[in-house]
Amino acid sequence: MNIGSHGGSCGHSCCLRLQGLSVKIGNDPILSGVDLHVHCGELVALIGPNGAGKSTLLKAILGQIEHDGIIAFSVPGQRTRKPKIGYVPQSPVFDPGDPVTVADLFACCMSKRPAFCGLSKAMQEKVLECLARVHAQDLIHKRVGVLSGGELQRVLLALALEPLPNILILDEPLSGVDVEGMESLMDMLDELRETYDLSILMTTHDFASLPRYADQVILIDHKVVCQGKPLEVLASQDFTRVFNRKGGGSF
Ligand code: ADP
Ligand code: MG
Q1: Is the CB–ligand 1 distance for residue 51 below 6 Å?
Q2: For 134-166, how does the pLDDT look when each residue is reduced to its tens digit (9 = 90+)?
């Protein structure tokens, strides 16, 4: 399915605007003067070299880190400016020897009952309903520590989708996922956005998938270097300079 057609249309999804966002950690300026706009229902890809401040930017939006400047949300039909945000952090690590199953993980996050008491029938049905959103019902009894990269991302996405958010923030969801898995994960994000009317802001290093899936690409390197349609950014001199590589031809 081709994306790019949703940008700017307002349903229940959320619009996010940053104005003059700056972050310092200690005395180190990590981000300065970041202006950006995620339109309702858009999939926006944040790209940049390692250490450019991508994860820091997401953490500022999530309110996990001090910042200067304005972060404003607007949720159509709601007076509140506080949206529901679903978040999947970068590379969470689970011990392969850990006995915690996917069902246990959901129970810990969604139920007051201790996970060692087992899942009630109602909770098991709820977990299956959540996993069905990402076509992963078959993973319910698998141990989290042995999931493949793609399976783990699906499970974490299912968690981030409960309760259904207005905006989904994903930090490198494709890292640790094989090439085939990347395409199927991006197809699923596309489907989720369409089904649940979500705005999605994600960081990624998978530039090849951007023209097909992203409405907007924002290249940052401690500040916004370049932003626009995927092919414009990938073909730009800024992209070539920042990544020290050839631009758009191969995309
Ligand atoms: P990216 O996600 O683009 O790879 P990050 O946002 O993780 O980059 O990091 C940007 C810069 O901020 C890096 O130089 C990193 O070392 C620094 N940084 C991030 N978090 C911290 C922290 N908690 N303490 C000190 N420096 C940090
Ligand atoms: Mg990062």
Answers
A1: yes
A2: 999 999 999 999 999 999 999 999 999 999 999
Q: From the CB of 25, is ligand 1 less than 6 Å away? A: yes
Q: Is the CB of 53 under 6 A from ligand 1?
A: yes
Claim: this prediction has a pTM higher than 0.85: yes
User: How far is ligand 1, taken at its centre, from the CA of residue 24, in Å?
Assistant: 10
The alpha-helical segments, DSSP class H, found in the chain are: 54-61, 102-110, 121-132, 149-160, 179-196, 210-213, 230-234, 237-243
Q: What is the pLDDT of residues 224-239, one digit of tens each?
A: 999 999 999 999 999 9
Atom of ligand 1 nearest to the CA of 52: 3
